[in-house]
Amino acid sequence: MTIEQLGRYRIDGILGEGAMGVVYRAFDPLLERVVAVKTIKFDASLSDRDSFERRFFREAKSIARLSHPAIVTLYDAGKADEVAYMAMEFLEGRELRQFIAESEPQSYARIAEMVAAVADGLDYAHRQGVVHRDIKPANIMVLDDGAVKITDFGIAQLQSGTKTMTGHMLGTPKYMAPEQIMGHPVDGRADIFSLGVVLYQWLTGIAPFDGDTVTTIMYRVINEGPVLPTRLQPALPPGFEAILARALAKKPEERYQNASELAADLRRYAELVSTGPILGLATVQPNKAPADPSDEPTVLLAHPFNDTRPLAPQSAPQVRPAKSGKSGKGLWLGLSALAVAGAAFALLPGDKGGDHPAAPLQPPPPTATPIAAETPPAEPKKPARVSLAIAPWGEVVINGEVKGVSPPLDDLELPPGHHEVEIRNGQSEPHRMTLELGPGESYKIKHKFK
User: Fold this and answer.
1) Confidence band (pLDDT; 50, 70, 90) for 229?
2) Which of 46, 55, 157, 231 is 20 to 30 A from residue 80's alpha carbon, by CA?
3) In terms of domains, do 197 and 330 share one?
């Protein structure tokens, strides 16, 4: 159905369409100016409409309070023919995803300043009590004069707040913070994580958390660290690694605590260094194609992980670098050398060399005194084997420890004895069972989630 009028606004064309509605180019005859009008989709029962309308205008009032050079200005909000809409300033420019794809490569200083400007806008919004919840390249506009503006403030909160979406969240999985994916309360630090993902992707050409399915992406956001950026771009200044490591920390308390700190570090990236403790592991995939910036829709998702392993991987001792040519793993590092802010990465290979010499051998006991033959130690008990047949998928937790996702995980070795098993799938109740396994015993767990 073609819309020609919304309230007093004359609709002149479609600017874009997404999961949450359509954005139109429109004309305001009262003030004689071109505006952008965004309609908000809402599928709800009649009993929910009043609640939605109250939330809609409450969110509109919150957004209208935001007055900052890096945030799009909201002029008006209303409802016409059961369609809710917001009228905002019309921007001459391109989405950041288009800007990156179509423009000449930017200098590191220019990238740092543009992202810092976005961080400035986020810091202002957070201080007004407004969290964006869906920061991504498609929601950042680069104007023709080079300025940047954040769009779609409050829309994700408006949609995810409906009763019909209880237990769901709205966002873009590859840019969402771990706590957001897990359905935990979020604050401005979730936006900082998302902006860190945008920066990583801009600098390297590859999304830090990607996969063939939404479930894979979300699992990696929660449990895995990104590839060391200099493995993808060797010339990258180390200060960016320091910034990214802190912005992308799994635990909110380990990130920048406000966006102004992130902006400050971006503006002094050349002064920062990247040394510090290990925060996580990542495997390089050198043949992986760059992320397609057009494939970033905002979608409605059920939580696939209501609970999982600790958000921050456990620290590990550093090891001696490998010789040139030997394969290794990139380790995501946090920055401890900075006094104000920063966290960094370091690349540490997987061989087992260490910095500490082996302890000297002790001399054998005197041979003059006969030594009785010792009783040979008992042979270790043969492990039990558990096979898995889970449909469509499930996260396998044994005795509180995450073992992986099945499929592809289809076989486990467990020591004989008592084991508590839980198979999780965020769209259904977990499947729980207790196993008593004997030495060498085989057992098959077969379960299908509805």
Assistant:
1) very high
2) 157
3) yes
